[in-house]
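Attaching the record inline, Q. Sequence:
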Amino acid sequence: MIEVSRSVVIDAPVERVFAFMDDPHNHVTVTPSLAEVRNVESLEGGGKRLDYTFRMAGVGLDGDLVETTRAADERMVFEMRGQLEGEIELAFAPAEDGTELTYTGRYELPGRVLSAVAEPFVRRYNERELETTLANVKTHVETGA
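Structure, as predicted:
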């Protein structure tokens, strides 16, 4: 399993950052490799379930996300199923200058040999993807774009 985690401080209240990240369509805007979200459904008690297409090296990978944990303005955890499997956790905390958003991805790589060979490349790819995503979230929330 690969785990990558990064944080950013956003000059906006926790409620605004949480609301932005609570809209799955905003994830397509800020996540470079996320090509599409569709079939978004609200779950009982809050949260979402949706289908997605993630593009990696020109290949579309389909799956679904189900929000398994939700604490308003504090935390969201999603189970990722399909061609990519794992978990995405978003944590929101008040910070001196607004909100600290921490994004953690935990991913399973298919196959033992593929995992051993690909892990360093996949880790670096995910680190760059996460850094870009958080920078994009910061820009969109702070500018109201």
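DSSP finds three helices and seven strands in the chain. The chain has a mean pLDDT of 88.

More tomorrow.
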